[in-house]
Structure formats: structure tokens, C-alpha cells
């Protein structure tokens, strides 16, 4: 069952009695449904909301965003209607960048997140120069395969590939052209998560998220690559649950 709060937000397992909400942001090419298992696992203790970017699933006919900051502007505006309870943000890969920029906008509006969870992404101050989005379709597909985050069966279906490539290309462009604005810091706690063999993020690049908040910071390193969280979903969900249900302990190791 999906209970939407508009075209941007998906609520798969409503938890009206939860004390806090977790807003989830998917990776490049990802969709809100990626977080269905997370929602199921955390409900009813946490009310999980998943952001549905344009250009995928039921929004596939809409043009995807190619600019991370413009996407963050749009999402932050949509969250104005769901800030009746304390919230935390979780983003993986491109989603971590979007979540960070949304957190900056929320804090500017007087809303301090309980925690910003950033997964599988270099800190904004540690930019990597990459131009995957400028490659041809075969090069883009090769990168998608290398990241191991997409069902290989989908990539063997020419019709599905034709449908998903525009969103992937736009998302890669948003990720690769994003530039952090020096001097912008959060106040909320930040917890960075990464895989120890992620080809996109070194542990040092994940540790550098510390520079982007004046609040508490923690780093968790898991065995695995860019999609380490698929293998360690139970551990990641348990970590989120502890942080979300005991917010006073943010910044400490539970």
C-alpha cells in the first residue's frame, strides 16, 4: 500500500503514532520504492517518507532534474507539509548530496533535522571530477553495471533500458556538476556510512563529512562496495532505528 503526500513523497507504511519521521533520498537512477523494505522494517517506530524524483516509475513522463540544488529546492518546498514531527534525512550516493542540500534549506527555515545520514558519497568538499553523463549509452550502461546497484535482468531488456537511461543520465549530471558552496555548514548531527571497497568513495572522503557540520559527527564503515547497504540492510536499519528512537544519543556510539 502506498499513501502519498503529493507527487513528491511516498509513504508506504504510515506510522501516525511515530515520534519522528525519516525522509529518504535515492541514488542516481533510483526511485522511492528502493526504500520500501526500510519503511517496512522501521514502521511503526519511525514514519518513513521516500522522495520520488521526477523521471521514474509513475513520474517517468516528467523531465528529470539535472541540477542538484534545483532538485533540493523543490524537495525542501514539498517537505513544508510534513514537518509536524521531528525528522531525519537519509540519502545514498546522489541522494546524500540532495539530503545535505535539503538539510541546509530546512535549517535556514528554522527546522533542525535530528540527524543527517549520508551514505556512499564523498563529502561535498572532496569533489571528484567525473563526466559519465557525457558518455554514450554503452558507456553509461557500463558504469551502471560497475556500481552493481541495478538488477542485471533490467539491463538485458532493451525497452526497460530505453526507459531508465534518461533518468540515470540526468542524475549523473546532477551529481557530477554539483559544487559545494564554501562556508555552508549544518548544525545537526551527521552520520556518514560507507563501504570499505567503494570505488566512488574512500574512507577518508567519507570522514570529511565531519567538516560540514558544527554538530556531532560519526562514521561507520561496512564491508562492501558502493551498494554495501544491500548486503548490510539489517545492520543499517538497526543503526537508523537506534538513532531515530533515541535522538538524545545522537553523536555518541549506541
TrEMBL record:
A biological process term (GO) from this entry: lipid biosynthetic process
Molecular-function GO term, any one: hydrolase activity
Annotated signal peptide: none
UniProt entry tagged with the keyword Hydrolase: yes
InterPro entries given in the database record: AB_hydrolase_fold, TEII, TesA-like, Thioesterase
Limits of the Thioesterase TesA-like domain: 23-244
Pfam families given in the database record: Thioesterase
Keyword entries, A-Z: Hydrolase
Family (UniProt): Belongs to the thioesterase family.
Protein name (record): Thioesterase
Species of the source: Streptomyces luteolifulvus
Amino acid at each position: 500500500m502506498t499513501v502519498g503526500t503529493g507527487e513528491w513523497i511516498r509513504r508506504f507504511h504510515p506510522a501516525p503514532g511515530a515520534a519522528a519521521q525519516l525522509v529518504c533520498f535515492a541514488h542516481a537512477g533510483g526511485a522511492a520504492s528502493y526504500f520500501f523494505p526500510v519503511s517496512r522494517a522501521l514502521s511503526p517506530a519511525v514514519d518513513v517518507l521516500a522522495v520520488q524524483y521526477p523521471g521514474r516509475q509513475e513520474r517517468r513522463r516528467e523531465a528529470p532534474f539535472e541540477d542538484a540544488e534545483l532538485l533540493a529546492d523543490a524537495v525542501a518546498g514539498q517537505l513544508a507539509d510534513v514537518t509536524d514531527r521531528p525528522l531525519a534525512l537519509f540519502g545514498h550516493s546522489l541522494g546524500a548530496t540532495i539530503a545535505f542540500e535539503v538539510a541546509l534549506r530546512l535549517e535556514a527555515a528554522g527546522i533542525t533535522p535530528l540527524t543527517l545520514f549520508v551514505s556512499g558519497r564523498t563529502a561535498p568538499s572532496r569533489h571528484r571530477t567525473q563526466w559519465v553523463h557525457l558518455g554514450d549509452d554503452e558507456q553509461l550502461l557500463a558504469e551502471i553495471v560497475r556500481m552493481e546497484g541495478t538488477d542485471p535482468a533490467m539491463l538485458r531488456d532493451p525497452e526497460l533500458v530505453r526507459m531508465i537511461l534518461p533518468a540515470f543520465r540526468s542524475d549523473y549530471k546532477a551529481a557530477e556538476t554539483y559544487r559545494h558552496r564554501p562556508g555552508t555548514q549544518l548544525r545537526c548531527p551527521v552520520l556518514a556510512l560507507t563501504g570499505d571497497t567503494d570505488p566512488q568513495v574512500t574512507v577518508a572522503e567519507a570522514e570529511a563529512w565531519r567538516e560540514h557540520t558544527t554538530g556531532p559527527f560519526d562514521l561507520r564503515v561496512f564491508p562492501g562496495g558502493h551498494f554495501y547497504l544491500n548486503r548490510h540492510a539489517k545492520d543499517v536499519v538497526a543503526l537508523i532505528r537506534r538513532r531515530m528512537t533515541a535522538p538524545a544519543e545522537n553523536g555518541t556510539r549506541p
